[in-house]
From TrEMBL:
InterPro entries: Fimbrial_CS1-type (IPR007540). Keywords: Signal. Pfam families: Fimbrial_CS1. It comes from Pseudomonas azerbaijanorientalis. This is CS1 type fimbrial major subunit. Gene3D superfamilies: CFA/I fimbrial subunit E, pilin domain. Residues 1-23 form the signal peptide.
Length: 164
């Protein structure tokens, strides 16, 4: 009986060692996406991180003000419609950043044309849109009447472009 136990112990130890050395499967999920615009109509950022990464509005310590940002987009429309091939844009939601307690309104312009909710504005004229245009998107904070309040602010600027 002692021999059976003596033989079984090394077998049992070998079983533990071999199970510890076995690899455990590891799963990963990578999110991928593609946005392939048509060659007839597109409005794309010159640098993809403009729409893939948060954009920081910098705090100017010397002047106690929040600075805006400007990012370039490439745009083209050779789609002929009732308005020629002009490109129009609008905001699909109010533009602001919030700390949860305080909001800061944002002024949004594309190609120096102010965008608003529910109202399409022609941002690139029909004659210009025929060939690719580099147009600036600018996002500027509107200083609150009571001044800027301390906090961490976040938000989204949601725009829609169309060649109606």
């Amino acid at each position: 009986m002692f021999k059976k136990i003596a033989i079984s112990a090394p077998v049992l130890a070998l079983a533990f060692v071999s199970s510890a050395a076995m690899a455990v499967p590891i799963d990963h999920t990578v999110e991928v996406y593609a946005d392939i615009p048509s060659s007839d109509f597109y409005v794309q950022p010159s640098k993809l991180d403009t729409v893939q990464q948060p954009q920081q509005l910098a705090w100017d310590m010397d002047n106690s003000e929040l600075k805006g940002i400007s990012r370039n987009f490439r745009a083209k429309s050779s789609v002929e419609s009732g308005t020629g091939n002009a490109i129009k844009a609008s905001l699909t939601a109010p533009a602001f950043i919030t700390s949860g307690e305080d909001d800061i309104e944002l002024t949004v312009k594309f190609n120096d044309v102010a965008l608003s909710v529910g109202s399409d504005a022609e941002v690139i004229a029909a004659g210009e849109a025929q060939n690719e245009v580099i147009a600036a998107l600018s996002i500027e904070p509107v200083a609150p009447d009571e001044g800027y309040q301390v906090g961490k602010y976040t938000g989204f600027v949601r725009m829609q472009f169309d060649a109606p």
